[in-house]
């Protein structure tokens, strides 16, 4: 059935290590196959990183985090679908890859918290903030997926 919640959106970013390690295709594949809809995608650079991680500015790892995230392009994405914020976090795994179960992205592709391959919004509120920080309205696409009626 159709559901208003299927308009929920989240912000994901393949971090520089994920791009270097050629994980972009694998990560996009997982979200496509799960049934989510891609509505925004681009290679992006570092200019919004400090604002993106503003809540963590007083953490001891903050400057390391900013230089890690600035070490190459990231692939910024917006995905849409029912409960996508929470489901994407489950698909990512835990912040520390050592706590992430096999089958999750971090549980399958990395070992260290400082190089954990992917970002995902932690709440609907963060998602809205992050999407408007990283993407202009004209970079987000409205389109009808032909598989919608087989997913909802
Ligand atoms: N991070 C780190 N050391 C820590 C905690 C976090 O290097 O002890 C990095 C890690 O890359 C993480 C990012 O900072 O993904 C943002 O931290 P957050 O707590 O928001 O984790 P996330 O939401 O990415 O799981
Ligand atoms: Mg976070």
Order of helices and strands: EHHEHHEHHEHH
Q: Which molecules are bound in this entry?
A: uridine-5'-diphosphate, magnesium ion
Rounded mean pLDDT is 96
Shape: globular
Number of helices: 8
Number of strands: 4
The helicity comes to 25-40%
Helix/strand-derived category reads: alpha+beta
Low-confidence parts lasting 5 or more residues at pLDDT below 50? none
How would you characterize the largest beta sheet? 4 strands, antiparallel
- What Rg, in angstroms, do the CA atoms define? 15 Å
- The spatial strand order of the largest sheet comes to 2-3-1-4
Give the N-to-C terminal Cα separation. Answer: 5 Å
**Range of strand content:** 15-25%
Subcellular location: Cell projection, Lamellipodium; Cell projection, Ruffle; Cytoplasm; Nucleus
Cofactor: Mg(2+)
Keywords: ATP-binding, Cell cycle, Cell projection, Cytoplasm, Kinase, Magnesium, Metal-binding, Nucleotide-binding, Nucleus, Transferase
Catalytic activity: a ribonucleoside 5'-diphosphate + ATP = a ribonucleoside 5'-triphosphate + ADP; a 2'-deoxyribonucleoside 5'-diphosphate + ATP = a 2'-deoxyribonucleoside 5'-triphosphate + ADP
Give an overview of the whole structure.
There is one protein chain. This protein is an alpha+beta fold and 152 residues long. 38% of the residues lie in helices and 16% in strands. Strands 2-3-1-4 form a four-stranded antiparallel sheet. The longest helix is centred in the first third of the chain and has 11 residues, at 24-34. It is globular. The model has no long low-confidence stretch (mean pLDDT 96). The structure holds uridine-5'-diphosphate (UDP) and magnesium ion. One of its GO terms (biological process) is UTP biosynthetic process.
């Amino acid at each position: 059935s159709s559901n208003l919640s299927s308009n929920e959106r989240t912000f994901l970013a393949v971090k520089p290590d994920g791009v270097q390690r050629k994980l972009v295709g694998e990560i996009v594949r997982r979200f496509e196959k799960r049934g989510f809809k891609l509505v925004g995608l681009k290679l992006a650079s570092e200019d919004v990183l400090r604002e993106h991680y503003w809540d963590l500015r007083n953490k001891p790892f903050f400057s390391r985090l900013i230089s890690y995230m600035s070490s190459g392009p990231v692939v910024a994405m917006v995905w849409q679908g029912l409960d996508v914020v929470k489901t994407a976090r489950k698909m990512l795994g835990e912040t520390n890859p050592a706590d992430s179960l096999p089958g999750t992205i971090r549980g399958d592709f990395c070992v260290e918290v400082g190089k954990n391959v992917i970002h995902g919004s932690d709440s609907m509120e963060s998602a809205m903030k992050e999407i408007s920080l990283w993407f202009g309205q004209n970079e987000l696409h409205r389109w009808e997926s032909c598989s919608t009626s087989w997913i909802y």
